[in-house]
Design goal:
This protein is mainly beta. Among the domains are: 68 residues, no CATH class; 91 residues. It has no helices and 16 strands. The radius of gyration is 26 Å and the shape is extended.
Length: 262
């Protein structure tokens, strides 16, 4: 029998106001007295978790498999730093994985408070020499409501850039990949239905190959899917919108009883 136990730590953070943020607040004592400022709005967030798992009835740190994480937030309730303690479950032992996130200011992101701008992953410590991965949103769309260009960095100057284009409904209609050594870029075009403007009915690559999909717009269920060789799969559902029958390519003989999976 496997036994597990999880311990969760909580911390209070002040919520951002028009007067600015006040940083991290440790109000564990003040909450139980009358000294908490009336104009201070706070939120409760999980700042640490420690999980023990053991196939025997012993959850001590010496015998259990331990997983530990720490999390920090900004005043908009966004995670700005997450640290995993690594294999041994202990911090400051050199095998931690640290992630940091920064965000666009609401004034630069259409009033949104949670648009990630930069994400970095480090080995053990936050330093230039321990950087493992670096992703950055280089540019938002003209209305500041979606990502236009995203970069994956190999070094501080070498990066692979991807770009997205959207329609007036906010759907991604084109995705361009990074350049290859010849300066060429792969791209994918997406066409959406003209009924509810939600479902991708055709996806086409740079070579003109495409797949097609039809839907039941009242439920969102896929009715047919067709690959680039025009092989079609048909789906039938029961009254509770569960898959009832799947009919594969070249197995439709015109009979209602035909099926591939049922």
């Amino acid at each position: 029998m496997t036994v597990s136990k999880t311990t969760t730590g909580l911390k209070l953070y002040p919520v951002h106001t028009t007067g600015g943020s006040q940083g991290q607040a440790d109000l564990s004592n003040e909450l139980w007295t009358d000294t908490l400022a009336e104009d201070l709005v706070v939120f409760v967030a999980v700042d640490s978790t420690v999980s023990y798992q053991n196939p025997v009835l012993d959850l001590s740190a010496n015998h259990a498999f331990v997983q530990s994480q720490k999390v920090e937030y900004d005043s908009y309730m966004n995670v700005i730093k997450a640290t995993d303690a690594g294999v041994d479950g202990s911090f400051n032992t050199g095998d931690e994985v640290v992630s940091t996130m920064s965000y666009f200011a609401p004034t630069a992101a259409g009033g949104r408070t949670g648009q990630v701008q930069e994400h970095k992953v480090y080995d053990a410590t936050v330093s230039a020499g321990s950087l493992l991965r670096h992703t950055k949103v280089e540019q938002l769309t003209s209305d500041s409501m979606a990502v236009k260009e995203m970069r994956q960095y190999l070094t501080t100057t070498d990066f692979a850039a991807s770009e997205m284009t959207y329609d007036s409904y906010g759907n991604v209609i084109q995705m361009k990949g990074p350049e290859n050594d010849l300066g060429q870029r792969d791209s994918v075009q997406v066409t959406y239905d003209n009924v509810v403007h939600t479902y991708p009915i055709q996806v086409e690559n740079v070579f003109g190959d495409y797949t097609q999909t039809t839907y039941d717009y009242s439920t969102g269920q896929v009715l047919t899917s067709e690959d680039l060789n025009e092989n079609q799969i048909k789906y039938t559902y029961d009254d509770f919108f569960r898959v009832e029958k799947i009919l594969g390519p070249k197995e439709d003989n015109g009979n209602a009883s035909d099926f591939t999976i049922k």
